[in-house]
Design a protein that fits this description.
7-stranded mixed sheet, alpha+beta, 8-stranded antiparallel sheet, single chain, globular
């Protein structure tokens, strides 16, 4: 990985300078987001693409991604709705929006409080889904959808919060939580820390509007951050699985090639992408 300060100086980068210290990105599930770069106290890239099939029939994407930066704090989420569940697009959007807000406002973030919040969200989501009318579909289809609705709307997720070290010398922290098989990768300097997450990405683990966390306990990692740490964090859903074998940093245009997927006439699956980083000081 090249130093972030060098990355930011590349002339070909489509970088948007932020005059203030606040920034928010929330993906639209009905449209594409070309890969975009911004720089505040954090270095950030994000993009979103629907599967070719969803675009062709005008359907919403099943993925969701969001970032919220305020001063030295950054909250983020990537969700992959489970297509075989009832309204996977709803689950990804509802869960993602809720987790983004919770990560931002909570000061006492612990694994126990996080799990409790996921369970409480299931009650709210189930209530919202139950209020949806199915009167516009045939009786046969309505019975099928009613059965699926009882089983719940489901989504995999990655979420977290980064608080940079204070100028006073107080250490910062990074919190990461996830369930499912979306990709979560972390580099410290040039070294990818694969051992931190090995064996923890499982398709059967997810959040459900019927039960909360299912398939196992939410995975959790928490790190202290010093002024000397240089970190790159990458998250993406399985529509961008071609990135799995790539260890080096890629420029914007090469990631955009994967989002466009012209070599396969479009994405086979929805794709949400977030990359965050910051350069420590010596």
């Amino acid at each position: 990985m090249r130093p972030l300060l060098s990355l930011l100086s590349l002339k070909k980068r489509r970088e948007q300078e932020q005059k203030g210290t606040s920034f928010e990105y929330i993906s639209s599930q009905m449209g594409e987001q070309p890969l975009t770069s911004i720089q505040s106290r954090f270095y950030c890239r994000y993009g979103y693409g629907r599967a070719a099939e969803s675009i062709s029939v005008g359907e919403s994407g099943q993925d969701f991604a969001a970032i919220r930066i305020k001063d030295g704090s950054c909250s983020f989420v990537v969700c992959d709705g489970v297509g075989m569940s009832y309204r996977g697009d709803f689950a990804a959007r509802f869960l993602g929006s809720s987790l983004l807000d919770w990560m931002e406002r909570e000061s006492d973030i612990t694994p126990a409080r996080f799990k409790s919040y996921l369970k409480s969200l299931a009650v709210d989501a189930a209530s919202e889904l139950a209020a949806e009318s199915l009167s516009h579909v045939s009786e046969m289809l309505r019975n099928v959808l009613e059965d699926k609705r009882k089983q719940g709307s489901q989504s995999m997720y990655i979420c977290g919060k980064i608080e940079l070290p204070a100028r006073s010398g107080k250490k910062g922290r990074m919190i990461l939580a996830w369930q499912g098989d979306s990709r979560l990768r972390l580099w410290q300097g040039d070294q990818e820390l694969e051992h931190m997450f090995r064996g923890s990405f499982k398709t059967g683990e997810r959040w459900s509007s019927a039960r909360g966390p299912v398939g196992g306990e939410p995975h959790w990692q928490e790190f202290k951050l010093s002024h000397k740490d240089s970190i790159r964090l990458q998250m993406y859903t399985d529509g961008l699985s071609d990135l799995d074998a790539i260890r080096d940093w890629l420029p914007d245009d090469q990631i955009q090639v994967l989002l466009d997927a012209r070599h396969t006439n479009g994405l086979d699956d929805d794709a949400a992408y977030i990359e965050l980083g910051w350069q420590g000081t010596s």
